[in-house]
Amino acid sequence: MSVLSLQNISFSYDKVPVLKDISYDFEKGKMYCIIGKSGAGKTTLLSLLSGLAKPSDGDILYEGKSIAKIDKYVFRSKYIGVVFQSFNLITKYTALENVVLSMDVAGYKTKNKNQRAMELLKSVGLDESEAKRRVLKLSGGQQQRVAIARALSYDPDVILADEPTGNLDRDTQKEIMEIFRSLADQGKCVILVSHSPEVAQMCDEKYELVKINSKAKK
Question: In the Cβ-directed half-sphere of 47, how many Cα atoms lie within 13 Å?
Answer without folding.
Answer: 16
